[in-house]
Amino acid sequence: MIIVMKKGATTREIANVTARVEQLGRQVHLSEGEERAIIGVVGDGRPLDREQIGRMSGVEEIVPILRPFKLASRDFRPQDTLVRLDGFSAGDAGVVVIAGPCAVEDRVQLLETAHAVKEAGAKVLRGGAFKPRTSPYSFQGMGLEGLKLLAEARQETGLLVITEVMSPERVPLVSTYADILQIGARNMQNYALLHAAGESQKPVLLKRGMMSTMEELLMSAEYILSHGNDRLLLCERGIRTFEHYTRNTLDINAVPMLKQLTHLPVFVDPSHGTGKWDLVGPVARAAIAAGADGVMIEVHPDPENAMSDGAQSLKPERFAQLMIELRAVAEAVGRTL
Amino acid sequence: MIIVMKKGATTREIANVTARVEQLGRQVHLSEGEERAIIGVVGDGRPLDREQIGRMSGVEEIVPILRPFKLASRDFRPQDTLVRLDGFSAGDAGVVVIAGPCAVEDRVQLLETAHAVKEAGAKVLRGGAFKPRTSPYSFQGMGLEGLKLLAEARQETGLLVITEVMSPERVPLVSTYADILQIGARNMQNYALLHAAGESQKPVLLKRGMMSTMEELLMSAEYILSHGNDRLLLCERGIRTFEHYTRNTLDINAVPMLKQLTHLPVFVDPSHGTGKWDLVGPVARAAIAAGADGVMIEVHPDPENAMSDGAQSLKPERFAQLMIELRAVAEAVGRTL
Amino acid sequence: MIIVMKKGATTREIANVTARVEQLGRQVHLSEGEERAIIGVVGDGRPLDREQIGRMSGVEEIVPILRPFKLASRDFRPQDTLVRLDGFSAGDAGVVVIAGPCAVEDRVQLLETAHAVKEAGAKVLRGGAFKPRTSPYSFQGMGLEGLKLLAEARQETGLLVITEVMSPERVPLVSTYADILQIGARNMQNYALLHAAGESQKPVLLKRGMMSTMEELLMSAEYILSHGNDRLLLCERGIRTFEHYTRNTLDINAVPMLKQLTHLPVFVDPSHGTGKWDLVGPVARAAIAAGADGVMIEVHPDPENAMSDGAQSLKPERFAQLMIELRAVAEAVGRTL
Amino acid sequence: MIIVMKKGATTREIANVTARVEQLGRQVHLSEGEERAIIGVVGDGRPLDREQIGRMSGVEEIVPILRPFKLASRDFRPQDTLVRLDGFSAGDAGVVVIAGPCAVEDRVQLLETAHAVKEAGAKVLRGGAFKPRTSPYSFQGMGLEGLKLLAEARQETGLLVITEVMSPERVPLVSTYADILQIGARNMQNYALLHAAGESQKPVLLKRGMMSTMEELLMSAEYILSHGNDRLLLCERGIRTFEHYTRNTLDINAVPMLKQLTHLPVFVDPSHGTGKWDLVGPVARAAIAAGADGVMIEVHPDPENAMSDGAQSLKPERFAQLMIELRAVAEAVGRTL
To answer: Is residue B101 within 8 Å of B127, Cβ to Cβ?
Structure first.
């Protein structure tokens, strides 16, 4: 951390600041320039609270140097983390495809989709049983019944199952049915939920909030990792910008940037990231070309009648075609699928 | 809702769409222009799901006409809602000032602040007992102990007490100590929490998410109102933009815009909205000049040593001075304080 | 400037960086912590180019300390700059109101508006002769004819005249008719135009780009000031965000923030900042309460038939009413109007 | 265009609006629902000005149906436009690579880079002679001397040359030296410049503004196309968002979205789109996987000493390696390079 003093800060102000820093157990390197003094704070441990010192008399600005996340950082663990799932891992050379409907709607819809995506090469089935909806008047998911259908689909197809959990007290229930817990974008900073997911020791896919920086995503990852649960997948799913021709703006930069910052696998959700089914294919290809460890794609046998996200869902035959395209791109960048 | 068909949509496609709409219990007005057909959907009730129809063959775009919120809208209730509190109301001519520390830290800090803000004219004491923090390594609040101190401060000063509740299972506990439940920006779309707050029948202050639209704020309000709980205050607290000289960008437009859209009282939090104590005063004055029904201001007796948000907290003497300024502005716009 | 070296940067890399900095005429303060080395760059003069050094081997990050603007900063000139106009100044206790139509459309429209705003208390008449339009098919302004009508309106009413100039070669022409040159939001980084406006020695009102930070606004101001032209007014006019209920998001924080950063007068344009005539009044009041030195308001005698910006223009009688409100707020914050 | 009337609009208000629309030469389809009336505007020609009607009494909202651009749209020209350059075209199966330094700095730097990128497979050499810089104190480019060096590099290598033009009066000069005129992000709405570039009949590469929507990009394209100049390339180069780990957020969605909306070739600039040289490779691969017709990459023989944009420039050997990767991805998606 670097403390920039105001132009004209007094000797006494500078002394007060250095005394405070030392009292907090750090060492100080003072550089007094012609225009202003700069105080470098040295010493290990967690970053000091910027605000405490930032408010002291004579201080102009506090500049953090270290990233505020630790367990999630490459500095902490230089090698890629491989998240072992059932007979395969996320984070190695194989690109993992998660596919399925936005919401579980009924037995036929789910099983039909599950068989189709399995055959096309997906490894994990997605499907929402509890749905976060902007409107209280929209379909809120099938709940427990949906979880049971997911378990049945796993039984029938051998696919792993991922589904969203929306509140801490539901973590035990969802954990008994799902192989991977999904924490949705709106809950990325629901800290009670992050704690519960960390404690569960189940694999977790954590989606970046639509309004969250990469740094905040990694800070939320820290909540889960701090419980010793490192079977954690991060997922870029589009951020909110001023552009309105697409539902969100998929942040493709985040793929290589996150791979630099963290050892955790990075997934991409082009369905939410674009909001339009006819953009899903090109953007899924882009994600893999940029180095994503997996993609998550919405597939529905009858998108026109889907109860949610129909506009961004692929039909099974289009998905099968896309898998062929994705495999070609994966191989072009030295991966498999 | 208006359905815009693609240029060149076939008669059959148009017929399919109109049939679907009628099947959903609405009437159809078809306009066939030279370039394309436009289908107006008429009939009361809740809006149809855009996605369902948007995905049908031949449809180019769905244009919603009605606002998706109902109970929160001025159309539904044209008169201002007065939220009765203890001997006074929010939403009438009197501007309500909420003040206090970001977090409850100890008995002395809280009581000293409570007495000071009471004397300066505040009606409600704020103070966080459970704190949502980006980092798992930051101070997370005093918890139950903090709630008890808030209750003691109320006892001593007669101020009402507002504090944040972060998860649905804590609503009963927090409700026994607080007069007003605060739902924070990060939880604006934590639907389980919104339901629990709605059921509690306690007054609620709902903060706009830092990257949520006004429409989404009103949709979240709808979750609370749909439980018959209309003692609801909305609070603008700054949105996230590209500007980085300030912590957030306070959306001053939201004050008069929300007052047009909804009958609920609108508050402003200039402390989070700016992130800098020396901007709080001018922006608080602006909020009242723009028509806000109340402001929420962070006050701390020793901001340099505050455990959170010190950079944006006012000292009690500065707050007392600000109250004089706010009163002058309130009177200039025909309000009292 | 502070140079943060990577964890594990070699002695040689550190030496290379310090040598480069010294070669550029600055001094170096080296702090070697346990985790990484930090190099403080001391010495006066213009900031070094971040990129040059940021790219050197072993460097993790460059942190600028000094603001990149100089002539525009309060450090450079602590007192408020008063921009003398004709018998009055901007930047003193008197709040200056600029009003008039978005575009000059014809003689009757302009003169009628000019008389009305003069009578209500405005000091400056606005009116576009050259109009920047998103679409090549929209009305592009009356050009020279419009300039002549503006000059006639000045003659008749005694109001000063402000109008937009859109390209450097038009600066001399516009300068012969207008008292104040306006540089619009889309041209805030049109550097050739900034140079020409600086050279002209006419008063300039520089609008913040809808996509520009305050820092960039002040850097653009620097272009004008560097020609010795300090009769410069800055104008906040709303920035682009994700919110879509309003045309732009007026950045009210920018008013007190800019007043801290710079000695130049700060104006606010609530017409473009909101895009809706019924929000203009509340937001204009807010601007003055926040400390703005002036406001710029669109007024049109027949907004329904305006050739541009009708949706955000006030009728003259509504404007006269607003002036009364603005005066009350100005007095409440110790200003006059 | 659809006109939504307010709830409770009077018969007279509805009649006034329909009369106005008919007077403007359009036909009207009136749908009177239980809650409100909706007026569909039918008839060909350019869109009516929303504001004119939006301001009429009783009107709640205007909903545009047609895209406001015409010549740039796929509706107008369904086939891909091939922009013929010298012996090759942009917009066909071959992906075009533009490479070179941000700024022309001296003869050796430019020629060395030109030979290197030619050998690696680039078809066009980039290099700035006139540089738009945020700060008046930064290097502003070599000007005419730079143009001459570019012409020399073309002579020596056979590469085409692209360089930025910043003001309308410079278009003739730059046109005599360059094969393609570049209009930079900051000038995307410099309408005088767009007109001049349109008139020049030279090929133009138009960059999307960093906070401009795709719609605005296509409207600016319309300015150029309306002069009969359709040798036009669009270029996505990153937009401004709240994320700060990268300089900009490259909008990968824009590639397939623009390809749907327009017949013009779409390029991507991953150097500005990321701001970090080590992200350029992955994002360039992503661009091609998403369907871009070309990429524009900054290459510098000595990025540490580059006068601008060193942080995002590749060394020639890294660029040569990247070309191999890009070729593999291009082939995986059925293109060549």
So the answer is: yes
Contacting chains of B (3 CB pairs or more, <8 Å) are: A, C, D
Residue A224 pLDDT: 97
Assembly ipTM: 0.91
In angstroms, the first-to-last Cα distance of chain D is 43
A192 interaction partners in chain B (CB closer than 8 Å): 166-167
pLDDT tens-place string over residues B279-337: 999 999 999 999 999 999 999 998 877 777 778 899 999 999 999 999 999 999 999 99
Chain D residues near residue B75 by CB distance under 8 angstroms:
7
Asked whether the beta carbons of residue A55 and residue B303 sit closer than 8 angstroms, the reply is yes
Helix (H, G, I), strand (E, B), or coil: what is residue C34? coil
Rounded distance between C-alpha atoms, residue B276 and residue B130, angstroms: 23
Closest to D295 measured CA to CA, from D238, D244, D245, D243: D238
**Per residue in A195-234, is it b (16+ CB within 10 Å) or e — as a string?**
bbbbebebbbbbbbbbbbbbbbbbbbbbbbbbbebbbbbb
Enumerate chain C positions whose Cβ falls within 8 A of a Cβ in B.
211, 213-215, 239, 241-246, 249-257, 260-261, 273-274, 276, 278-279, 281-283, 285-291, 325, 328-329, 331-333
- Give the per-residue pLDDT at A49: 67
Q: Which residues of chain B have pLDDT under 50?
A: none
What would the two tokens of residue C331 be?
């007095």
Specify the pTM. 0.91
Residue C237 reports pLDDT greater than 80: yes
CB nearest to A40's CB, from C40, C66, C242: C40
Could you tell me which chains touch chain D, where touching means 3 or more CB pairs under 8 A?
A: A, B, C
Q: Between helices A254-261 and D277-289, what is the axis angle to 10°?
A: 140
For D324-328, the CB contacts below 8 A with 24+ separation are D325/A333, D325/D281, D325/D285, D326/D95, D326/D97, D326/D284, D326/D285, D326/D288, D326/D295, D327/D121, D328/A332, D328/A333
Indicate the pairing of strand C266-268 with strand C232-236: parallel
Between D302 and B319, the more confident residue is: B319
CB C63 to CB A61 under 8 A? no
Nearest Cβ partner for C192 among D138, D167, D305: D167
Least Cα separation, residue B8 to chain D (angstroms): 11
Q: Give the number of other CB atoms < 10 A from CB of residue A249.
A: 25
Looking at residue D61, its amino acid is E
The count of other CB atoms within 10 Å of the CB of residue C6 is 15
| Contacts B–D by Cβ distance under 8 A | 59
What one-letter code names the amino acid at B136? P
**Closest-CA distance of chain C to residue D305, Å:** 6
Whats the size of chain C, residue-wise?
Answer: 337
Nearest chain D residue to B28 by CA: give it.
D31
Handedness of CA B175, B179, B184, B187 (dihedral sign): positive
Helix, strand, or coil here: B56?
A: coil
CB contact under 8 A, D310 and C211: no
pLDDT in the model for residue C149: 97
Identify the helix (H) or strand (E) that includes residue A324: helix A316-332
Task: Render A257-276 in DSSP notation, one character per residue.
Answer: HHHHHBSS-EEE-HHHHH--
Question: Which residues in D have their CB inside 8 Å of a CB on B?
Answer: 2, 4, 7, 27, 29, 31, 33-36, 38, 40, 42-44, 61, 63, 65-66, 75, 211, 240-242, 244
The strand order across the sheet containing C27-32 reads: C27-32, C37-42, C2-5, C59-63
Q: Are C268 and C284 spatial neighbours (Cβ–Cβ below 8 Å)?
A: yes
What's the Cα-to-Cα distance from D14 to each of B29, B66, D8, D33, D52, rounded to whole Å? 17, 18, 10, 13, 15
Q: Smallest Cβ distance to B42: which of D27, D31, D244?
A: D31
Contacts of D217 in chain A (CB under 8 A): none
